[in-house]
C-alpha cells in the first residue's frame, strides 16, 4: 500500500504573510500599551502630599477623617466634603434602588438651581426659574441644560405627560420629578422652601451599587460636617429597601473634592 506524503513546506510568500501578521500584532500590542500608559492620570504634587496624610489602608472615625481631610486640603477654592457609600443592593432589582429626600442639619453650603414647570412663566426669581410647558422642548433641544441651568425640577402633575419627552435626557441624570421626592406637586413653594433649608435628594447610581453625596464644604466647622455625615448615614438605614439579603451600607468613604478618599468606620 502506497503512503501518501503531504508536502508541508511553507511557501516563501506564505511565510512573508505570517511574518507581517506577527509584526502587526506586535505593533498593535505596543500601541495599546502606550495608550494605557498615556491614559493613566498623573497626580499633582499636592495630591501626592495629601496621600501622605491620608492613609487609605486605615479605617477612621468620622471625627478623625474630617480633621485629617481638612489638614490635607490644598486647593485655592473652598473644597466640598463628599461621602461615597458602597451599598448592598442588587442594581438589577428596581425595588432595591435607593431614592429619598432629607434635610441635612447644616445644608450643603451651596445654592440649588430649581426649574419649576407649571402654568406660570414668570421667569427667573433668585435661584428659581419659573417656566411653562415650552421649557420641555428647550430641555430636549439643549437650550436648557441640566446641572448648568437647573439642578432640580419641580413639575405640576398636569405637566408630567408632556415632560415624558425629556425623560431620556433627565432620567439618566436622576432629574425626573418623582412622587418619592415630592417634586411632582401643585404647591412648589413648599418644596422650594425645603430645598433652601438644606433638603437634598439621596439616590443610588442607576447601574452601580454606590451612592455619592456632598455633605458640606470646608467653610463649615468640623462639628457641622460630622453632624451632616452622621445624619446621612442614619437616614440611609431608615430608608433601607425591603427584602434585602445584605446590609444596606457596606462601606463608607469621605473625601474632599480635590483629594484622595479614606474609609470611615460604620
Could you explain the architecture of this structure?
The protein is an alpha/beta fold and about 270 residues long. It has 2 domains: about 130 residues, Ribulose 1,5 Bisphosphate Carboxylase/Oxygenase; about 90 residues, Ribosomal protein L1/L10, domain II (Rossmann fold), CATH 3.40.50.790. The chain is built from 8 helices and 11 strands. The protein has a 5-stranded mixed β-sheet. The protein has a 4-stranded mixed β-sheet with strand order 5-6-4-7. Strands 3-8 form a two-stranded antiparallel sheet. A hairpin with a 5-residue loop joins strand 10 and strand 11. Helix 3 crosses helix 8. The protein starts with 11 loop residues before the first helix and ends with a strand. The model has no long low-confidence stretch (mean pLDDT about 85). This is Large ribosomal subunit protein uL1. One of its GO terms (molecular function) is structural constituent of ribosome. Keywords: Repressor, Ribonucleoprotein, Ribosomal protein, Translation regulation. InterPro entries: Ribosomal_uL1 (IPR002143), Ribosomal_uL1-like (IPR023674), Ribosomal_uL1/biogenesis (IPR028364), Ribosomal_uL1_3-a/b-sand (IPR016095). One of its GO terms (cellular component) is large ribosomal subunit.
Amino acid at each position: 500500500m502506497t503512503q501518501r506524503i503531504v508536502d508541508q513546506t511553507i511557501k516563501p510568500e506564505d511565510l512573508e504573510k505570517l511574518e507581517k501578521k506577527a509584526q502587526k500584532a506586535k505593533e498593535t500590542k505596543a500601541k495599546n500599551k502606550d495608550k494605557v500608559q498615556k491614559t493613566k492620570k498623573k497626580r499633582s504634587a499636592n495630591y501626592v502630599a495629601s496621600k501622605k496624610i491620608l492613609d487609605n489602608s486605615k479605617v477612621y472615625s468620622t471625627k478623625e477623617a474630617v480633621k485629617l481631610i481638612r489638614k490635607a486640603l490644598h486647593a485655592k477654592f473652598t473644597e466640598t466634603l463628599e461621602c461615597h457609600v458602597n451599598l448592598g443592593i442588587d442594581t438589577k432589582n428596581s425595588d432595591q434602588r435607593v431614592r429619598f429626600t432629607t434635610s441635612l442639619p447644616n445644608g450643603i453650603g451651596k445654592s440649588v438651581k430649581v426649574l419649576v414647570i407649571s402654568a406660570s412663566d414668570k421667569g427667573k426669581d433668585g435661584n428659581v426659574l419659573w417656566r411653562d410647558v415650552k421649557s420641555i422642548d428647550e430641555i430636549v433641544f439643549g437650550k436648557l441644560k441640566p446641572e448648568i441651568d437647573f439642578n432640580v425640577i419641580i413639575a405640576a402633575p398636569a405637566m408630567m405627560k408632556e415632560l415624558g419627552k425629556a425623560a431620556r435626557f433627565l432620567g439618566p441624570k436622576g432629574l425626573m420629578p418623582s412622587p418619592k421626592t415630592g417634586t411632582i406637586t401643585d404647591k412648589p413653594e413648599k418644596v422650594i422652601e425645603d430645598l433652601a433649608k438644606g433638603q437634598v435628594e439621596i439616590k443610588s447610581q442607576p447601574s452601580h451599587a454606590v451612592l455619592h453625596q456632598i455633605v458640606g464644604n470646608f467653610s463649615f466647622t468640623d462639628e457641622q460636617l460630622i453632624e451632616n455625615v452622621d445624619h446621612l448615614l442614619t437616614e440611609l438605614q431608615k430608608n433601607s429597601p425591603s427584602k434585602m439579603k445584605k446590609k444596606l451600607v457596606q462601606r463608607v468613604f469621605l473625601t474632599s473634592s480635590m483629594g484622595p478618599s479614606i474609609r470611615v468606620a460604620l
